[in-house]
Fold:
Amino acid sequence: MRELNPRHSLAPRHRSAIRTYMGVKWFRLRRYMNWYLSRTVFASTKHDGHFPHLIFRHQTPLLRELRNVDMWMQHNKVVNVSIAAPKINGMVIRPSETFSYWKLIGTTSRLKGYKKGMVLSHGQVVSGVGGGLCQLSNLIYWMTLHTPLTVTERHRHSYDVFPDTNRNQPFGSGATCFYNYMDLQICNESDRLYQLIVYLTDTHLVGEWRSDLPAVHTYEIYEKNHWITQEYWGGYVRHNTIFRKVWNHERELVRDEYVTENHAIMMYEPLLAPMKQEKHIL
Structure:
């Protein structure tokens, strides 16, 4: 697996509004140039039916009660995901092609029907048009870790905003997104076709990776070396490394490989007494 974001100082930095605005413009321009001038062949073909072989399937609840997050943001997130998901549903990644999350979804504007949803900005929950699409990128990334596909670009969350209530995946197993320069890109370096399926039910966002050929391996994702440090600037940073075990059909371990590392500023005090668990709204 090849990913971006080696560890660097996570000390909060103050930037002026003008510098932030110009920085966003520059990084977006650079992304456009990469999309249209690089030699990368980006996936662009959809298949209406489902490929015959299910490789991995996962689902996440659409609505969750989160501390200090108004539920209208959650409901607007569902609207946003329902607009974005059809743009990538059925997308086929042929050998040597690369899936680009933002190239396929495009801008998230009001004109397209997107609403203000939850956005994390410097560790704070704010509202922004198109907010909540990280749930979709998180789902795709987690599913991809259970396939032979290669993650060539993924951006980790820089802030750990919510305590571990109802977490059933390792910390740091998601992929943040921000149009268009914080992208999720996945390359098919295999000799078979893969198809992405994503759709919404009344209660869940559901995703599948399917293929034209049956799976050769299964995967187990786990974390190592989970620790917390207090930084020189006073905050706490959470760290871990993600690995995965690869098994063949005889349930023999083929390899145990490094996936990525995570470092995130904690937006809550570590070592707090256990809190009452937040309930999923189904």
Observations:
- Residues 145 and 221 are 7 Å apart (CA to CA).
- Helices lie at 17-37, 71-88, 101-105, 134-144.
